[in-house]
Sequence to fold (327 residues):
Amino acid sequence: MEKHVEMIRMRGNLLADWAFASKGSVQKVVQADFAHEAYRWPLLRTFNFEGYLWNGYLIIILRDKLSGIPAGGSQKPLDDPNAPTEKPTLGNIGVWQSYLRSKFSVRPQDFVAIIPIVEGAKKVEEEWTQWSEEDKKLWHYQIRINVTQQFYHVKGFDVVGDFFIPPGYQFLADDCKRFFKDHPNYAKNVFIMTRLVKGNRLLEELDRELRAVLREHGLDPVRADEKMYLRDRNLWNNVCVYMICCKYGIAILEDRVADEFNPNVAIEYGFMRALNRPTLLLADEGFRNLRADIIGTLREQFDITDIKGTIRKPIEKWLKELDIITT
Fold:
């Protein structure tokens, strides 16, 4: 640590150089992906910056402010026994980002990154050329993490946890915001994937009992036919809003109402799994239309002829696996 402190002391502008390089990298991404929002993007107006040293790495923090000129001080050693012990990699950068945002109270409109210090380099460009390909990928990934957080801030989201809008679906941000006005707790939202047939008593009972169990444990079950959030009333995009805004999902497999693997349930289940959202496959014990892509997936069973007597156990087993139920 002392070696790097002395090296940085001799290169007094290291932190300032990287602060402005960070702002420039954010600006490039914003101009490329969100040009129509750039005029109100945080950090692009002005900011304060600070830095910390950890085992040959520099931690850069930019804090958005409304006016004034950019300002910052000297970097300080990070001496925290609760800091991650392994150097940042693509595999653990999420842990590092979570730690840094919590440790230094980094807001969604701010910026934080951790980068390797190159001995002897006098400019950002020199350091960049000496970074490994892994280091460069890690830098770009952290830029994306920060821009995504800032995007949610610009759009006015008030969500916590691991909520994200996947690439290519940012155009649904305003619709997601409307969804969260009705269902504000992302970590409690459960998307129910089921056959939608109005007036079917069997499916109505299944929906009623399923919701009752989930609500008993503080969760908020939702179905895509409850409300249209899209201004253009596009059905598929409306379903996407529900899936994006729910942390969990339950896919119902039954073929009593129609002798098929419901195609809507299939595509919604695939989408939720692609988002890496914990999703329960809840199958009627008489379900016959299994497909190759789910044969190897663990399913929980219930009896659709005895919904009230069999639906609770598999759901609560799943909730215990997720640590939602702890007793």
Observations:
- The mean pLDDT is 90.
- The first helix runs from residue 2 to 10.
- The beta strands are 46-54, 57-65, 71-72, 76-77, 111-116, 189-193, 220-222, 248-253, 279-284, 300-302.
- The longest strand covers residues 46-54.
